[in-house]
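Tokens as discussed.
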């Protein structure tokens, strides 16, 4: 790791929604900035173990609270106010926040003379349209207000980081500076290489990430008896109601529910699997998204079963020859795709190799870190 470079401003990333040594915020962005010589701070919910882990990456972490201690109202009020104080007290010249609800805090820090970066992880407007906890009749109005707030902030902040190519369309005309920094996997984090693979031990399919109806969990579970294959299900359900409903499906008996797992757990789960599942519905937010699970499956060297109804994802898989596409709402098609890959391990392993090669060449964090560093360099050289 490179040491702190004299003359570079200190930076502080903060979030009230995310927690701990989060993969995009901490392991990718902040770790890359620290390696480039920026004095790096982090204000986020976390534990003493998280503080030590962040320190090993060259990052000084200040826990905002214990993880999972803030509901939506508390995050937007008490925790946001506390984050403002803690970020201010670090003395960091460049502050970078990751939750749209923190836009008012970003504006307050801007008024204090800090240089402010807003990070947009998703297409917020279309994401709001499918929030189950917002009354359906209010979603369009709230989504429209949220988009206006984003653009208002983009014109005032010093930089915008977008995780999706689509963010160019959203912010390109309004942002002072815009960097598209895609959320690709860390190089080598999930790749065991051919020498470590015993394909006969890969007896499961895997799904890793947030779990919900619109992410295809109902059809996937329903497909398992026909596929004759067990599922490693890793992640949290977005809705307790949906979790209870899908557990009533007979296919649930073939699910090994792992819950939330750390990065080592993800690697181990993918190493037990002969395919990764990414059969999300083609809702507007997904059409513009780039699910990290797709690229993680590729980086891990396993073929992908992808939604045929999302053209950009299908193109990645087809161009790389690393998987098969299916209708995400057709359990029979999902089951047949699972069986096809299970019953032809030679073809599945070749698809896995193809995906790993494409991930290393085109879809790794090393291809993205420079854009983030260049944005910070531009902000750091402007006069305050």
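Sequence:
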């Amino acid at each position: 790791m490179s040491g702190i470079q004299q003359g570079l401003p200190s930076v502080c990333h903060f979030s009230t929604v995310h927690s701990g040594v989060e993969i995009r915020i901490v392991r990718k962005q902040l770790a890359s900035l620290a390696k480039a010589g920026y004095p790096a701070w982090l204000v986020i919910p976390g534990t003493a173990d998280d503080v030590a882990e962040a320190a090993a990456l060259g990052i000084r972490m200040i826990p905002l609270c214990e993880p999972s201690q803030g509901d939506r109202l508390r995050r937007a009020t008490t925790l946001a106010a506390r984050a403002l104080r803690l970020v201010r007290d670090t003395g960091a010249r460049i502050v970078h926040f990751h939750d749209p609800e923190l836009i008012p805090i970003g504006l307050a820090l801007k008024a204090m003379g800090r240089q402010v970066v807003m990070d947009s992880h998703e297409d917020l407007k279309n994401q709001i349209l499918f929030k189950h906890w917002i009354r359906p009749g209010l979603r369009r109005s709230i989504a429209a207000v949220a988009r206006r707030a984003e653009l208002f902030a983009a014109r005032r902040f010093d930089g915008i980081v977008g995780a999706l190519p689509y963010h160019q369309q959203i912010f390109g005309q309004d942002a002072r500076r815009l960097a598209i920094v895609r959320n690709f996997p860390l190089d080598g984090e999930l790749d065991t290489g051919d020498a470590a693979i015993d394909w006969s031990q890969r007896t499961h399919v895997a799904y890793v990430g947030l779990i919900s109806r619109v992410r295809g969990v109902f059809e996937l579970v329903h497909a398992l008896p026909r596929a004759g294959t067990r599922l490693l299900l890793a992640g949290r359900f977005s809705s307790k109601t949906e979790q209870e409903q899908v557990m009533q499906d007979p296919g649930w008996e073939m699910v090994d529910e792992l819950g939330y797992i750390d990065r080592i757990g993800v690697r181990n789960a993918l190493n037990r699997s002969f395919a990764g599942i990414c059969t999300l519905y083609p809702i507007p937010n997904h059409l513009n998204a780039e699910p990290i699970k797709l690229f993680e499956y590729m980086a891990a060297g396993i073929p992908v079963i992808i939604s045929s109804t999302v053209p950009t994802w299908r193109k990645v898989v087809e161009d790389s020859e690393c998987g098969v596409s299916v209708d995400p709402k057709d359990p029979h098609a999902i089951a047949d795709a699972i069986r096809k890959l299970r019953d032809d391990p030679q073809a599945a392993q070749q698809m896995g190799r193809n995906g790993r090669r494409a991930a290393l060449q085109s879809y790794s964090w090393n291809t993205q870190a420079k854009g983030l560093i260049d944005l910070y360099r531009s902000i750091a050289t402007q006069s305050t």
